[in-house]
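> tool_call: predict_assembly(chains=four)
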Amino acid sequence: MNQTLPTIKEMAIRLKVSTSTVSRALSNHPRIGLKTRMEVQKLAKEIGYEANAKAIFFKEKRSNIIGVIVPQIREEFFSEAISGIESIAVEKDYTILFAQSFDDPEREEKVVDSMRKQRVDGLIISLSKQTTKFSHFHKLDKLNIPVVYFDRVPSFSNAHKVYCDLYTGTIKMIQWLFKKGYRRIGLINGPSNLAASKERLKGYIDGIVKQHLKVDMQLVEETDFSKETTCRAMHKLLNQKHPPTAIISFNDYVHMDAVQFAISNNIKVNRDIAFVSYANLPITGHIAYPPLISIEQYPFAQGSKAIEVLISLIQNQAQIADTDFVSIEVSPDLKETPVVSSPYY
Amino acid sequence: MNQTLPTIKEMAIRLKVSTSTVSRALSNHPRIGLKTRMEVQKLAKEIGYEANAKAIFFKEKRSNIIGVIVPQIREEFFSEAISGIESIAVEKDYTILFAQSFDDPEREEKVVDSMRKQRVDGLIISLSKQTTKFSHFHKLDKLNIPVVYFDRVPSFSNAHKVYCDLYTGTIKMIQWLFKKGYRRIGLINGPSNLAASKERLKGYIDGIVKQHLKVDMQLVEETDFSKETTCRAMHKLLNQKHPPTAIISFNDYVHMDAVQFAISNNIKVNRDIAFVSYANLPITGHIAYPPLISIEQYPFAQGSKAIEVLISLIQNQAQIADTDFVSIEVSPDLKETPVVSSPYY
DNA sequence: TTGTAGGCGTTATCAT
DNA sequence: ATGATAACGCCTACAA
């Protein structure tokens, strides 16, 4: 078993030259004799020499590794975002150190810490639902590790961010529903303390007003994302004197649960009641009753943007002043269900 | 901007002691005077000293980073597997370098190479569909980087593997269907050149025979996982003189597409025809027509097992002979649709 | 054209 | 109880 790997020093000894000659020959330094260069490169190939990246990283103080933290990859939104990140990473020769926070602020802190310890060159993160402390991020500043937040971004302004504006997305959606003739529009929103819920609710109210409809808070229900509370929300919505003719779900998963409930109550999905949603995830291409329309949030694009920003931050670390903060808004679009291939597995 | 990070040397100078003293004080070496130790640790905290992991990895020749490569995280099977891997990784203080092959052997080779260059301590991989070359893996051997394959494992035996035996799973499934009274059982299989398809087909045939039914190859159709071919397969199955009363789909995604087709042909899912499948992914908890039953393949457990094996390989590198290959079979179970909470997003 | 030497940050060995 | 020094593998400024 080849315990000791070939090094420059070894080759130097075998070829009776100095290590610097070997080093230079390998990097095709111009003023190394052709003959020497050839000899070195030949030997290198023979013994399968490869520079020890750890030594280089150590010397160069960079590792070409960037950290990526998301709440859960099981959510297609995030797996798509990661693919977006990866596509650029591979191209630019970066590698991804990956972790999930599972929406637990404590765990988030832990994984941020471990990435700091690994000295990633930069970090891309989508915050956990309830993150309120940011001290673990401040520690990164001290090490000059730049951070780009995406999708679930912090509210303070001195941070680099890439996100999607669902406020206007919601307004567009209500406009679309109005044009299709829907007048009683319900909303199954998330917990009211979440920024994402507030954003949707604001868009909902302003959207309704904009169409000169009456805002009726009876049409707004909440879910904590459990199937149970989603069903309860549906139950309340359906058992009103004037039930909604269209229902906006917080996201495609809530949509699916809502549809399940509707079916078991003998409602003809998208005929008796129109269902629309946010995210437009690939999975909706497979389900029996996809939302009529969904607000595309471009997770892949958000991911790509985020890493592009991050790489430029890494590469211009010296030049950039602390006060230049990048904030990119990806504009949401209304999209019909995507056509997709089944994953293989 | 704090360009130069605090080092041991700096502290040594400031405290007028040697670097070794500082190093030892920090690691609570027993024979360092209490006073010195306190002083050092106090200063360290003050200036926010943290050991430079890169320097240590360089010295120690380990990085506590393991590589993980899967075809696509969009597939819940793999995102669950990664969560299984991560759960153990966090616990044992390993970090995950992550990449997707997107079922492209060339890309797989590329990402394996980049992980080799990063000198991961070990690699966990689920092969791309069509991987036939293994030279990029052999290069890892030379660097003593152990590899554990999971789920999509190679056929040769000199490799560490964790996988699920779908042959017996399929037999169990047919037994279950038979007990429920189904006699004409159809199969929408994957492309016949895939090992995963062969395994299912073999189980299908043996399972049918075991129930003393007649094997009818008219009941076996293929899909390349596109919605189109799945629909074509369904079309053929449904338009026979004696259409099947139960249909086994290659996986939960194919199942969803098959159900979509069935619905649009006015078939009452799971009443006119029973639908069953493989994988039992969390997503089936949200869809309108989940499979009656699904073969649980325990992706989370497979992932955890894989990393446990890998870590033991890493830590016992010296002791283990090349001929000791671990091969773990996770036994599949029949499971009804899981009850899950919506992901947040 | 090639060699020498120093340094990156840490730890371990051997002195003192 | 503490210090000096070497070593890990590579690169590069300077010397020859």
